[in-house]
Amino acid sequence: MLNVHHSFRRGAALARFCLGALTGLACGFAFAQAIPDGENPATPWNWSDETVFNAVNQVRAGKDLTPEQWPGGARVAVLLSYDVDNETVMGLRTGDVSIGPLSQGQYGHRVALPRIVKLMDDEAIPSTFFFPAWSLKIAPEQAALINASGDHEIAVHGWIHERNTRLDAATEARLLAQAMDTIEEISGQRPVGYRAPSWNHSPATLSTVREMGFLYESSLMHDDRPYELVQDGEPTGLVELPVDWILDDAPLMNPLGNRYMNPRDIMQVWIDEFDKAWEEGTLFLLTLHPHVSGHRSRIVALEGLIEHIKAKGDVWFATHEEAARYVRAQADMD
């Protein structure tokens, strides 16, 4: 029987198929070379217990890392993050280059990011900005803008917002290494945090992230709270700061899509999510995109949310790096 653990983890030479969902969550694998003899990858209802468990256990949630209290006795940690995708998601990652969409990408760094950074600085909220390396290469002045206050973090979000689930392991590793080097060169900071493009992992992603020495990962959705990632049943020592599509602006603020919501309605969803996190004493992590939420009629949702959070009180605003280091220390993971 084939070594299923190794094949799932490394993902080498696997046959792939993608269902093409907008969120990227439905991107799947045929795992043709990881399925034992006699089991058809197209008929998962016939798979053995071993095959199903090995599929599920590639990456799982381990121990909850919520501390007894947050710094300063705060009741809840609030992490505001921004995926600064710009032109990379407006055609570059697919090669479907068109002037109109690219103009939307330039709006992201020309207008929207300065508007977002000004709000964060005015409100004294440290934030984390995840960059595909090409987004920063096209407009390197973004790094100086973010670094000016000394409060924010720059982290990595791929090379060109590539669909890593379609890449072989060696190519995925090469692009991530390039991205880290490029972001460090432009920003002066070596990224310690990773967020996968489209929030999805290939079978090789977690191994690659671990081998490159990242402090934390922020792409997965096993929990609302910070937790330790487990790979093939073994704790990794890697902190996961989880995301969720409910707490993301892009799916619900696309004016050309069929799910568009009024930003003020979305603000109420975020407020409700925050209030529950405050009650539970855990974590509220929001993912926004400057080219989406940085528009004039949409930034009001973020402004209103911040007003609500500050009025509630007992809050620790932090970058992802600060939160990851804190929960690691509290859990004696160092």
What do these coordinates show?
By secondary structure, the protein is α/β, with parallel strands linked by helices. It contains 11 helices and 12 strands. A 5-stranded mixed β-sheet has the order 3-9-10-8-7. Strand 7 (about 195), helix 7 (about 205-210) and strand 8 form a beta-alpha-beta unit. Helix 8 runs parallel beside helix 10 (about 300-310). It is globular. The two termini are about 40 Å apart.
Task: Write a brief caption for the model.
Helices cover 37% and strands 16% of the residues. The chain has 334 residues and is an alpha/beta fold.
Structural class: alpha/beta
Question: Shape, please?
Answer: globular
**Rg, Cα atoms, Å:** 20 Å
What is the strand arrangement across the widest sheet? Answer: 3-9-10-8-7
Low-pLDDT sequence parts: 1-33
Q: Give the helices and strands as they follow along the chain.
A: HEEHEEHEHHEHEHEEEHEHHEH
How many H/I helices?
A: 11
Helix percentage range: 25-40%
Strand content: 15-25%
- The span between the termini is 38 Å
DSSP E strands, number: 12
Give the rounded overall mean pLDDT: 90
Largest sheet: 5 strands, mixed
